[in-house]
Design brief:
The protein is built from seven helices and seven strands. It is α/β, with parallel strands linked by helices. The protein has a single domain, classed as Beta Polymerase, domain 2 (2-Layer Sandwich), CATH 3.30.460.10. The strands form two sheets. The protein has a five-stranded mixed β-sheet with strand order 3-2-1-4-5. It starts with a helix and ends with a strand.
């Protein structure tokens, strides 16, 4: 079984996550996906032998240059009406390239945007193409499956970028949840 198929199997055997993916698919978002912590945390829980529970918000990302940033709130409201038990976070990644740094190049797709999330194991997403589950993993899934955390190359380029990674690691405290997690110091 390939590493990617292992991640897909974890997602497919998590009914709650599959239901969320169906809700997102039914929103008909251009390049819409569930990403980041929703997928990462589920994989880490399974790999750590923990009960699967959604620990953080549900990150819904899409890439649609024809929609204004204000549509994020409309999609958020729609998802909240359909499934109020979740903390939704909806982002049109067209507008997110400059979130941490004003000199970041514009994103070209949702895959490009996910590939710019701070840590390698967070750079993951999934979506339903009809009934078929698809994975987005621009940096692969080895770190995700092996409970390793390091900044993507973009965040390793200088102290200014590494500071973002350090701040996130200090705030997240993931090793208290997943003691086997190896966090690369920066």
């Amino acid at each position: 079984m390939t590493p990617e198929s292992q991640v897909l199997k974890i997602i497919q055997t998590t009914p709650e996550l599959m239901s969320i993916l169906e809700l997102v698919r039914d929103c008909h978002l251009r390049q819409g996906a569930v990403a980041a912590g929703s997928i990462r945390n589920t994989v880490w829980q399974v790999r750590s032998g923990q009960a699967v529970q959604l620990l953080s918000d549900i990150d819904v990302v899409f890439f649609d240059p024809d929609r204004p940033a204000s549509d994020d709130l409309e999609i958020y409201a729609q998802l909240t009406r359909l499934a109020p038990q979740y903390q939704w976070q909806v982002k049109n990644e067209v507008y997110m390239a400059h979130y941490n740094f004003s000199d970041t190049p514009e994103f070209s797709s949702v895959v490009d945007a996910i590939g710019h999330f701070v840590e390698v194991p967070t750079c993951v997403g999934a979506y339903l193409d009809g009934e078929e589950l698809r994975l987005i993993a621009p940096h692969g899934v080895d770190d995700l499956l092996n409970l390793r955390c390091q900044p993507i190359p973009f965040y390793q380029q200088d102290e200014r970028h590494l500071a973002i990674y350090r701040q996130r690691m200090a705030a997240k405290q993931w090793q208290s949840i997943w003691p086997r997690l190896e966090v690369q110091p920066a």
